[in-house]
Design goal:
alpha+beta, 4 domains, 3-stranded mixed sheet, 24% helix
Length: 381
Amino acid sequence: MATDYYALLGVARDASPEEIKKAYRRLARELHPDVNPDLEHQERFKQVTAAYEVLSDPDKRQMYDLGGDPLSQSGGFGGFGATGFDFGDIMDAFFGGGGGGRQRGPRTRARRGQDALVRIQVDLPTAVFGGERDITVDTAAACGSCEGSGMSEGSELETCVMCKGRGEIQSVQRSFLGQVMTARPCPQCQGFGTTIPHPCPECSGEGRVRTRRTLTLKVPAGVDTGTRIQLQGQGEVGPNGGTVGDLFVEIVVSPHPVFERHGDELHCVVSIPMAAAALGTSVKLDTLDGTEDISITPGTQSGATVTLRGQGVGKLRGGGRGDLFVHVDVQVPTSLDARQQELLREFASLRGEEAVHTVQTQGATEGGGLFGKLKDAFTSR
């Protein structure tokens, strides 16, 4: 024998099958005609492919090691032989093997069901404290007539007459590489290897039917708009008794007429009269936790904030709750009768506030601050 197959693949004579396969994949990626179309690389590609055909087969490798020519009856050196070289080994060289390519043989009818998504709207108290909600979902459930098998009562699966149960059809094609064997899913059984001669009339052989069911959802405290809750095994049942998918529930929190949410904080506005802000008062506020007395100290200005600790939104991840911030809005009367105007003028006179001639802000001191700079800018002209 003039050809050293071990040398062609670059492996030792005692190389393991895995080492031989790895060497062939490396060379196939380098020499494949799609990568190197010149004639020299094509010829070498045929040589290493023939070497792999011999060394990957235990019987042919033994014959070769004993001095025989395993390809002598297969149409000469370089051909893939009447036995048909499996093109999957070449595909494995480019796309990987070990389960990375298409599964050989018949495939199972049972497949995992799809996940389902529903959206529900909850009010703010439910988002703050959590709660329970009944939800209705339309999904695929196992057929009660055939119990997911897809077959009528008393019937059985039959072996596909076209592929003889293999689930695929093989064909040999001639190319510049020689004879190449390819495989494709059987068109009659769709690759299952079996057929259903008498499908279940209820589910038409799919093993599942559409159904509507009601579930009780536990809404955790702290959910917000966009939060998704995963319910494992509550989605669609897979075809022909396949595993069940998951159900995802997306939360939408409806607006509240009083409170506005920012993360785990709640905010609201309390309006009080001008006199009450000046003299001080107490305001009753209906919070989500109950009625609270909000103390307004004398001289409270508009925009002041009163904080109620731990009365905000429950934290979704971690314990505790946020805070409730009460913002004070001091209202100035817009219409006064004669007596009210008289009393207010008297009040202003007592405080020396009949007229305001100079308005000062923080930092507006003589020769400094914003107004001082503006004054200097005009007087220097």
